[in-house]
Amino acid sequence: MRERDGADPATALRRRVAAATDRLTSVVSRVPGSATARSVGRLWQRHARERPDQYQASITFPTAPDQPTVGEIHDWIEALEHAFEGRLDVYARRGSVAVETDRVSAELFDEDQFDALCERIEDGYDGSHSVAHLKKWRRNGDRLVRAHVIVPVKPLFPREEGDAPEPDRPATGIEAD
After folding, report:
1. Residue 2 has what pLDDT?
2. Phi, then psi, of 51 in degrees rounded to 5
3. pLDDT in tens, 142-173
4. How far apart (Å, rounded) are the C-alpha atoms in residues 108 and 83?
5. How many CB atoms lie within 10 A of CB 43?
6. Phi, psi (degrees; rounded to nearest 5) at 23
7. What is the spatial distance between Cα 165 and Cα 126, in angstroms, rounded to a whole number?
8. Which of 2, 57, 130, 137 has a 20 to 30 A CA-CA distance from 144?
């Protein structure tokens, strides 16, 4: 009989509390200055502290006969695993291997090891690809995440046999806010 009459009192109470919380959140978000304070806090954390709460990376490794071997890619994935404390997923795709890491706290992340790995990847694809490295700040709840996206990009026109790669040209680095 209770099923036809409606929800039990505990469920009805939870629904009322959730609705009241939503209304309160809506009212507080309209208070003048609250959005400005949040924006200033984010800007301070990004530009003044320059220290994120967490790190995350997404890397794609193209595979082909003229590119780094599977063994080299495996070594890079192992180094990435050490930098991110083993929190990563590896996906085999047609023509590439993709690695996605979980968000890792700044205390667990080894930034020096990650930078060394990025240089090894650039050296591994030197001559066949340009390495694009996008660095982006993202919000995750109340935490600031520094996300790295690394993708070796094949040039539109292949190099001629006599052309040597430019030794002083750094990898493409893009900063995004």
Report:
1. 46
2. -135, 110
3. 778 889 999 988 888 776 665 555 555 555 55
4. 8
5. 11
6. -65, -40
7. 7
8. 130
Q: Which residue has the tokens 């063994």?
A: 71
Contacts of range 39-45, beta carbons closer than 8 Å, 24 or more positions apart = 42/139, 42/144, 45/144
What is the structure's pLDDT at 167?
52
In one-letter notation, the amino acid at residue 24 is L
CA 58 to chain centre: 6
- Higher pLDDT residue, 87 or 36? 87
d(C-alpha 154, C-alpha 131), whole Å? 9
Mean pLDDT along residues 39-56:
69
103-126 tens-digit pLDDT: 988 888 888 888 999 999 988 888
Query: Can you give the chain as a three-state secondary structure string?
Result: CHHHHCCCHHHHHHHHHHHHHHHHHHHHHCCCCHHHHHHHHHHHHHHHHCCCCEEEEEEEEECCCCCCCHHHHHHHHHHHHHHCCCCEEEEEECCEEEEEECCEECCCCCHHHHHHHHHHHHHHCCCCCEEEEEEEEEEECCEEEEEEEEEEECCCCCCCCCCCCCCCCCCEEEEEC
